[in-house]
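Recap slide: Ribosome biogenesis GTPase YqeH, sequence and predicted structure.
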Amino acid sequence: MEKLLCIGCGASIQTEDKAAVGYTPQSALEKGLETGELYCQRCFRLRHYNEITDVNISDDEFLKLLHEVGDSDALVVNVVDIFDFNGSVIPGLSRFVSGNDVLLVGNKKDILPKSVKDGKVTQWLTERAHEEGLRPVDVILTSAQNKYAIKELIERIGQLRKGRDVYVVGVTNVGKSTLINAIIQEITGDKDIITTSRFPGTTLDKIEIPLDDGSYIFDTPGIIHRHQMAHYLTAKDLKYISPKKEIKPKTYQLNPEQTLFLGGLARFDYVSGEKQGFTAYFDNNLQLHRTKLAGADAFYDKHVGTLLTPPASKDLAEFPKLIKHDFTITEKTDIVFSGLGWIRVSGIAKISAWAPEGVAVIKRKAII
């Protein structure tokens, strides 16, 4: 059977994997073959609804795309998730974009407590970007979901691109597509900079959004970060790790040799130090349980899937075992469970943090 290609983006049409390039439902495939207009679902939604949906591509395809970005003279808009900065960093991005300007966009600003000032978050993101080798020309905070600071972002892109193309890059789950949809809505609502009827045919790895001066905004697919918690949960349980509204921090006074369970997903052991407060920043729906460190292993084995959820008992067979990470803390520090949230440690302490095998746990300078 001859290979079927999307006439919008050139991707090979497939009906198996909704998150992968070229997906189209079987019914749409049959209709497209009849009419001779065969589009993947992503292009179909773009053409008919001005909606961009994220797709996932392999690491090799993403590397090829980054090389293309590096070889062009463009403004790179790197979208990161403020709530999960470490899980949304693109490894080696600084090498690939070498000579190009990078505008860092911290999305999901609305998730942080309102008491946290924008200036502090911007400074914190700048410092973290520098640690990753990135030197952004500016940092802007937005909330794609709430349309926060979208106008300001568009204006800044206009100032910084200086007639050049714009590449929007980010890992999956950072809200990149929601952000681009908000930009399209903002622009087309005011003046006809983007001609919505002519999102053109493009290559399989990016979507071109024409601007009025002949340049383009290129939306690129998201790269998958293997160490994010999302890859180990069912679709139903993703709500526990993807906050949609402001998180309410919870502070626990812990003595040494006490443990906090983060549902059944992770565990925080206070091994030694003075009695002190630990502040947890997780989705408001995630239940935290305190117990003694001495019996924590048995407590987990007995209650995971019931008292300690997610994961649900029926999903336990697929859920990885928890792996221990040890930390010695000497200053205000966040212990971050990648893609889940973090616990702020204020005083001197020895900590063991447990997360599913494959999920990163790191310490960083406290964001709050």
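The domain at 56-223 is CATH 3.40.50.300 (Rossmann fold).
The chain has eight helices and 18 strands.
(End of recap.)
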